[in-house]
Write a structure and sequence with these properties.
Chain B: Keywords: Cell membrane, Cell shape, Membrane, Transmembrane, Transmembrane helix. Chain B: It is a multi-pass membrane protein. Chain B: Belongs to the MreD family. Chain B: It is found in: Cell membrane. The complex is a heterodimer of chains A (280) and B (172). Chain A has two helices and twelve strands; from the N terminus they run ααββββββββββββ. Chain A has 280 residues and is of the alpha+beta class. Chain B has one domain. Helices cover 77% and strands 0% of the residues of chain B. Chain B contains seven helices and no strands. Classes of the chains: A alpha+beta (280), B mainly alpha (172).
Chain lengths: 280, 172
Amino acid sequence: MQKFFSNRKLVIAIVVLIISIGLMSVSVAIRNKRATPPLIQQFGNDVAGAASRVVAWPVNGLQSATNSVSDLLNTYEENQKLKKQVDQLAQAKVNAQTASAENKQLRKQLKLNESLSDYTAVTANVLTRTPSSWMNQLVISKGATAGIKKNMPVMSQTGLIGRIVEVNQTSSKVELISSTSSSANKFAIEITNKAGKTVNGIVSGYDKSSGTLEMGSVTSNVKLKKGDKVVTSGLGGITPKGLYVGTVASVKQDDYGLASEVEIKPAADLSDLTVVTVAE
Amino acid sequence: MPYARLKLIFPIGLFVALFLDGSLSNVFAGNLFSYPYSSVLHLVLLWLIFAVFLDDRDDLSVGLWALFVGLVYDWYYTGVFGVFMISLPLVVYICRQIKPWLDLNFLTLLMVYIINLTIVEAFTFIWYTMGHVINDNLADFAVYTLGPTIAVNLAIFVILYYPMRRLYLSVN
C-alpha cells in the first residue's frame, strides 16, 4: 500500500481529477450556450461522422435486410388493410389540395407572405445513437451545409421526435423528446378537440414508465378527450406550426389539484429511427 | 501473423468498436433501451481488456490509445469532455496493475470484465451527476442501468472470447 499511494502518484491522481472536472464543466457550459460548438470540435465531429458513416452503412444495410424479410411475411395482411385506406386517402388528398390552393390564394389577397406553417424539409439518415442510458441523442447525416441550425424541430415519418442541439458542418446531434435532462428545450403545442376548440401549452416532461409526453399546468376549461390531435403551435417562432406530435392519452389533475395535466402519446416510435426530417 | 500487423489491427479495431457501439445502439434501440431497463454497449472497453490481458508482450501502448478513443467518445457522442477520456485509461491502468497476480483463464477474465464495467459505468454516473448533466438516484442506476448493462456485455464477451484469444495466440 505504501508503494501504491506514493507521493508522486497521489499528485498525478489529483491533477488528473482536476483536469477531468475542469474539462467537464467547460464543455457543459459550452453545450448549453446557443451558438454552435467551437470550430475545432465541429471539425472533430465531422471527421468522426465520416468514419461513423463507413461503419454504420453495413449495419444499417443488415437491418433493412431483416426488416424487408419481416415485411414480406406481413405483406398479405397489410395489403388488405391498406387497400381500404387508399380509397379514403384519395378523397382526403383532393380535399387537402383544394384547401391548400384556396389558402394560398386567400393569403395572397391578404398579403400574408410568410405564415407560421411554412417550412422546408431536409431529409437525413440517422448515423448513430449515443450509447448511454441517460443521453437520448442521435447523430444525423446533415449539418450546417444543408442549412440546419440549432433548435430546429426533427420529425420521423410519423411525427415529431426531437430537436437539433448541436450543428457541425456535415452532421448534427438531435436530442429526442424522451430526454428528461433539465437543459432540454420544451416545445410549444396546441390540442384541438372534436368541437374545434384549442388548448395551448408546453411539453413539460416525459413519463418513461408509460412512454407519454406531459403537458402540465393546463387551466383551460375546454374539455379534452382521449384521441384528440396534438400539433406544434408555432408560438415562440422557432418551431413551425402544425407539426404532428401525437394524440391525447389521458387528462388528469396535477399533484396539487389546481390545474390539469394532459398526457400525450407520441405518434413516432422513438426506438426505431433510420431516416428523419428536419423542418427549417 | 507478425506482431507488427497486430499493432495495426488493434487501433483500427478499437475505432470500429467505437462506432459499432453507437450504430448498434441505434439499430437495437428497441431492445436495449426498453423501459425501465437500459443497457449500454461497451465494445470499446471489451477490446481494450482483451488487448491488455491476451497480449503477452505488453507492447501495444493500450493506455495511450484508450485516452485517445475516450476523447473521441466524449467528443462525438456526448459533447461532455473528460468522462470516458479519464475512465478508460484508468481501467487500463488498473488492469495492468492486477495482471501479474492473475491466473488467466476464461472465468477470471470474465470477473475482471464485470469489475471494469462497474468501474466505467459508476464513474460515468458520478461524473454526470456532478456536472448536473443528469439527475438520477443511485438505486435506479444500479438496478435499471448497471444490471442490464453487465448482462448484455457479458453475453458479448462470451461470444467474442475464443475468437479473440485465437487472434492473440496466433501472434505470440
